[in-house]
Amino acid sequence: MSTETKTMIHTEPKFGVKALVKIGMLAAVAVILMIFEIPLPFAPAFYEIDFSEVPVMVGCFAMGPLAGALIELVKILLNFVITGTDTAGVGELANFIIGCSLCVPAGLIYRRNRTRKNALIGMITGTLLMTVIGCVINAFVLLPTYAVALGLSMDKLVAMGTAVNSGITGISTFVMFAVAPFNLLKGILVSVTVFLIYKKISPIFRMR
Predict the structure, then answer these.
(1) The overall pTM is greater than 0.90
(2) Is the predicted pLDDT of residue 207 greater than 90, yes or no?
């Protein structure tokens, strides 16, 4: 067996009981953080920022990207059970993909070399990926799904954006002036928060 193979096996995360407990606790914190939403002046009311990706990214850094994806999944499922859905699960699936697009790349890059520089590179990469993927998913999946769920035409949904930003005149400008800034700002705020707190709380995850 090659040294590289041995290293890969050695570094694979092992999800024992303690790891699963940590995943569950971080997911529970994420669900609580979803309650506290911040409205934005440049986007319609249904776009509100929360910090639920902070525990997800912490989990990615502390236990690996797979653990982070599991935290995101449990968070979405718990929120689904607690609040239900207006989109037949489509919105929840899209939110899972968008959340993972921020945190998982950051965790993958940080895992290669656990330094502040790599953490920063990972978070910048994740923020940019989330912005791009979020725009695509909103344009082709979320906005049409929300329009159906709210009983609105796409024109009326766009008009909700126009009411807060006169530059929004169609789906493309909706994505450009509302969705992209929303995801970019959320990625930055989540990343800055994790960057400031991770080293202080990381000893908790090293406890045996």
Answers:
(1) no
(2) no
